[in-house]
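Figure 3 (text version): structure tokens given as input.
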């Protein structure tokens, strides 16, 4: 581990901003290179090595890999589900060409390991919705889901044909207090907390009873690191591993929040994201991840709710102190 040098694409995104800090804590600040299209506006990410990188620029990526003697790439840069539907061809270009650049650079520069995040967006309306199995019908409806499914198959292709040690997880919806919502269909479960802490009503863009698989960010970070640190021969799947922690609907989450904010009001006005959510699983069977590399989540919905509200209130108090 002490000789590893890591490059992260999309380091300023929801997952990237927290995974970058976790990797710096593990490997040392000097051994982790954060990259993104736009530099971070202050904050903890700005304190370590940061390089501006457009993932569509393969030459620049190769230059950075050589410059920093990179041994692992975490490829997080992508255009997400709801944002991707507004400009599907751009989303396809960024998500696919960016991935090819990472894989090709990794092969050419003999990078030891690559991480490719996938998503429950790879599933579709004909996928069994409850305890969705690892291998099943996959007919994604969004350009994001299509690009992630294609990306998974390319993971396997590069492993089989170029011996690239590439690993992948299918994330459920991710919930975090450190970055604001970023254009995903599951982002209601982040936004709702911001409104609750601000003592404002929340208008949810999904129906009250829309069940989706979700995960608290500390579990997502743990799963990613567990997968990447697992012995090579334990990784039996080279597409995306199903990953699960909890499943809930907006009204259940609102009920949990009311344990701490009894007056919190939520209304439901479904928009185009409802159709996306309806095409996704309601719960996930992640028994392969549990068997192969002993995955196990730490957080329940009640533990997550308590932690989210606690931390968002701390952040709110800090901001108010700055303004005073």
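Below: residues designed for each position.
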């Amino acid at each position: 581990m002490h000789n590893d040098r890591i490059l992260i694409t999309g380091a300023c995104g929801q997952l990237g901003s927290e995974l970058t800090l976790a990797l710096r804590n593990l490997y040392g600040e000097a051994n982790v290179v954060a990259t993104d299209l736009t530099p971070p506006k202050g904050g903890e990410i700005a304190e370590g090595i940061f390089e501006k990188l457009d993932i569509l620029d393969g030459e620049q990526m190769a230059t950075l890999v050589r410059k920093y003697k990179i041994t692992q790439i975490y490829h997080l840069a992508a255009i997400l589900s709801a944002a991707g539907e507004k400009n599907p061809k751009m989303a396809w270009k960024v998500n696919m060409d960016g991935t090819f650049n990472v894989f090709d650079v990794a092969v050419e520069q003999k990078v030891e390991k690559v991480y490719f995040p996938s998503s429950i967006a790879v599933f579709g309306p004909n996928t069994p919705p409850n305890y969705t199995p690892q291998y099943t019908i996959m007919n994604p409806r969004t350009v994001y889901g299509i690009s992630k499914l294609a990306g998974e198959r390319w993971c396997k292709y590069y492993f089989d044909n170029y011996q690239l040690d590439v690993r992948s997880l299918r994330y459920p919806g991710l919930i975090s207090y450190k970055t604001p919502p970023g254009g995903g269909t599951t982002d209601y479960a982040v936004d709702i907390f911001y409104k609750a802490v601000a003592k404002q009503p929340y208008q949810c863009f999904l129906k009250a009873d829309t069940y989706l698989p979700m995960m608290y960010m500390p579990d997502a970070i743990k799963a990613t690191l567990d997968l990447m640190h697992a012995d090579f021969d334990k990784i039996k799947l080279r597409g995306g591993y199903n990953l699960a922690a909890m499943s809930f609907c907006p009204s259940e989450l609102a009920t949990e929040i009311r344990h701490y904010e009894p007056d919190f009001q939520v209304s439901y006005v479904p928009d185009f994201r409802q159709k996306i959510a309806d095409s996704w699983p309601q719960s996930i069977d992640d028994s392969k991840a549990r068997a192969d590399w002993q995955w196990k989540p730490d957080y329940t919905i009640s533990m997550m709710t308590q932690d989210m509200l606690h931390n968002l209130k701390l952040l709110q108090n800090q901001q108010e102190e700055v303004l005073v």
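Residues 175-212+245-284+300-323 form a domain with the UDP-galactose 4-epimerase; domain 1 fold (CATH 3.90.25).
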